[in-house]
Specification:
By secondary structure, the protein is an alpha/beta fold. The protein is built from 14 helices and 9 strands.
């Protein structure tokens, strides 16, 4: 942009009249002290307490954002920002906007996303509820590091700086509190330069309850992490169930198995069959989910996974599915034949249930694979965009 600045200090706002002037004042003092060419943007999410008038009176630029939600407000503010770098933080006076030097230094050094770490910088008494400090934030941050191998230790710190161009390129979509996790996850998957700086969290200056709802927003964060990692949501549990089912099924297929005083028989064999069915379905969901997410830009493409998915063609899936169904039909015919040999009378359930369970498992698994193969291929259908040439302007004599 022709009037681009170096830094935008962005604050999402929904009825923050008590603390907004203080936050803007600290941000202005930082810009004055450092001489940075910058601006202060308030992304107002529908305040009714005079916050907009306060912000304008303090010299900040107000950007109205009609769509409700923390993420929606930030997305609107980032889009409207004129700074090459953006530092965002809550307008409740819990973060010190007068001391953003470490963020600016890292951004100038080439970082794409600089996260504050409250656990490294210090949390003032009463600034964070105990279940957030010792359960919610550590657990969700650990899940994020496990799922996505990100170096970030505090996923949900509200004070963070980033390159505006880099974050706009991530195509962030969420509108709620999970926006904080989406930014870190997508930046990690896009292999951006992520760094952390210690950040002190003070007790906010509001007299009203915070907008954050612990369990609702915590679940939204966890749900996002799961949905963005088909491996941990579907693939790894599916492999575990399939492996367990195949192992137990192989042990029990010849007959009952005793382990000390415990006897495992046809009922355990049935549980193993269910594990196989659910495991195969879960792995199928992992393939479909990964293909969908990669194709439509939710998850960055990966050469390793793309090669694997390209090898899983519809024809190969159908070949495996038909083979399984034929095995199931053969086992079912054998079971009916054994019943016919006994004039369709009483059978030894321990012996005859095994081929029946095997038959039904193979049939159901084959049918599931067939349907999953068609669904995956539907997602993989190439989409060609027809470009209609614009009509030339009318000739003016």
């Amino acid at each position: 942009m022709a009037d681009e600045l170096e830094l935008t200090i962005l604050m999402p706002c929904l009825n923050e009249a008590e603390t907004l002037a203080t936050c803007i004042g600290k941000a202005l003092s930082f810009l004055d002290r450092t001489g940075i060419a910058g601006e202060i943007v308030i992304a107002d999410n529908g305040s009714t307490d005079g916050s907009r008038q306060i912000a304008e009176g303090q010299g900040a630029r107000v950007v109205p954002v009609a769509e409700r939600g923390y993420g929606a407000a930030l997305a609107g503010g980032i889009e409207a920002a004129r700074g090459r770098f953006v530092i965002m933080g809550d307008a409740d006076d819990s973060y010190d906007f007068a001391n953003l030097d470490a963020f600016v230094a890292q951004l100038r050094d080439g970082a794409d996303l600089v996260m504050g770490n409250r656990f490294a910088g210090g949390i003032a008494p009463g600034a964070m509820p105990w279940h957030h400090r010792y359960i919610g934030n550590p657990v969700l941050s650990a899940v994020g590091r496990l799922f996505f191998r990100t170096p970030i230790g505090d996923f949900h710190c509200g004070l963070r700086g980033f390159s505006r161009a880099a974050v706009l390129g991530l195509n962030l979509r969420t509108t709620g509190m999970e926006f904080a996790s989406e930014m870190v996850v997508k930046a990690t998957l896009a292999q951006l330069d992520l760094r952390e700086v210690p950040t002190r969290l003070a007790k906010d200056g509001r007299s009203r309850p915070p907008h954050l709802r612990s369990f609702r927003d915590g679940w939204r964060h966890l749900r996002f992490l799961l949905l963005f990692s088909p491996r941990w949501l579907f693939l790894y549990p599916g492999i575990a169930l399939l492996g367990l089912g195949l192992l137990v099924g192989a042990i029990l297929l010849p007959g009952p198995f005793r382990l000390g005083h415990v006897s495992f028989d046809v009922h355990t064999f049935l549980v193993a069959a269910l594990c196989i069915i659910v495991g195969v379905q879960s792995i199928s969901f992992a393939i479909i989910g990964r293909r969908f997410a990669s194709r439509y830009g939710f998850i960055p493409r990966s050469g390793h996974y793309d090669r694997l998915l390209e090898a899983v063609t519809l024809e190969r899936i159908l070949l495996v599915a038909i083979t399984l169904m034929l095995v199931g039909l053969a086992a079912l015919v054998w079971g009916v034949n054994q019943w016919a040999i006994r004039d369709f009378g009483p059978l030894n359930s321990s012996r005859t249930m095994r081929p029946v369970i095997l038959a039904m498992t193979a049939l159901v698994t084959g049918f599931q694979l067939m349907m999953s193969g068609f669904m995956s291929s539907m997602i993989n259908i190439p989409i060609y965009e027809r470009r209609v040439a614009e009509a030339p302007p009318p000739h003016t004599p």
